[in-house]
Give the backbone structure.
Amino acid sequence: ATLDLTGVTDTAGNAGTGTSSSGNYAIDTARPTGTVVVADTALAAGETSRVTVTFNEAVTGLSLADFSVANGALSGLSSSDGGLTWTATLTPAANISDTTNLVVLDNTGYADLSGNAGAGTTSSNNYAVDSLRPTATVAVASTALAAGNTSRVTITFSEAVTGLTTADFSVANGSLSGLSSSDGGTTWTATLNPAAGITDTTNVVTLDNTGVIDAAGNAGAGTTTSNNYAIDTLAPTIASVAVPANGTYVAGQNLDFTVNLSEAVVVDTTGGTPRIAVTLDTGGTAYASYLSGSGTGALTFRLVVASGQLDSNGIAVASSLDLNGGTLRDAAGNNAVTALNGVGSTAGVRVDAIAPGVTAVAVPADGRYNAGDVLSFTVSFSEAVTVTGTPRLALDIGGTPVFARYASGSGSNALVFEYTVQAGDNDSNGIAVSSLQANGGTLRDAAGNAASPTLVGVSSSAGVIVDTVDPLATGVVRADANPTAGNAVRYTVSFSEAVTGLDAADFTLTFTGSAAASIASVTRVDAQTYTVLV
């Protein structure tokens, strides 16, 4: 400060002269100002940023309380140059997504070295905070999987993510394949393939969220589990097969097989009827077709024995079930394994549906049979037969039907039938064998098959003649027209049928007057004609 001395007088009235200057002094009334700079302008979860506060002069009294931090907090505020430059660490708040954020400094909280306090506020540059970790849902489309099935799995994130691989998933009783996204990473799909040979009603797909990051670099946290799904890829198997009881089965009888499975199955015959192949001695294959049991674990198959089938050593059952266009599936839809396990012994299960047949019929020896003679016939069969009742063999004797009754042979393959020639029976051309008749009785083999009545191999009976009519002399005619005394006279004797054994003793001469004669000879002309010489 400078004093003008001319403007003052002393007590004596003397006016001052010149000027007088004071000692030097400083004046500071300028308020301090600062800038706030956030180094990292895009903050994700787990990240921090350096915040630098630079003043135009050194200040004191600056504290964290002087700052307002959008979606975050400051820490570690300090200065290493006497208060001119300060640094702090900005930590963003968790689970925030905000693109507009500032750090605001209240300048009134500090002062310069002259004691001048700051005024107003100072805002930092803008920074974005994305500390919101991506989250996901996992949805399994098909919640009941059988063998051969797959299911679509959809993973939907709260935002687009990268880094997702099948290694980030834990799949109960299965695996994932074909993981991809078609919308930039928000929605992902994969295929769930169930493991084989599994039955489990409680299964989930678990996602390890730490394997993915969003566009801001936030990694997911924790795990996400899907909805529950059931797996049944365990195919039903055939545990055992109960076979028919030991015995010999004939035509029309049933061979029933019970197939026992590891679980209940449903039989669908829309495309065909499942069956069991049975091999017989007669060759070829017969089939026991599905009969009943769908919805249970025990299925019945039946073979109805057909005429002509034969197996004397025990039937043979195939090693596997023939589906024949049908299906056997459990409740989950798994196809049953068709291998026939635990098949009972069939060595004693025999089939005889071949009827005994006549192989030959022996007729009586050629000859002429008279009343009281017995005509014996032997009927031979392809196997032994047992007779009940009175079967008979129908014969034709001279156009008249008669019957040879069963006489003997039951239990063998040769049956004897006999007919006793009756008076009045005559057949000069040979009798005929007409048919075999049960006549209320039976002829069966050991298995119970009724014998076929068809006669084959019948021997010729053309020489079996039946003649119960005595021969008659139909005429005695003198062959010589004018016999004279002393000369032989010939007579032709004719019979109603052929005769044998005719001789002189069979004739008697009747005389008149004094005539006398004797039979000289009897000569056969043919079977019905003789010449008698008198």
About this structure: The chain has a mean pLDDT of 95. The longest strand covers residues 254-268. Residues 358-467 form a domain with the Immunoglobulin-like fold (CATH 2.60.40).
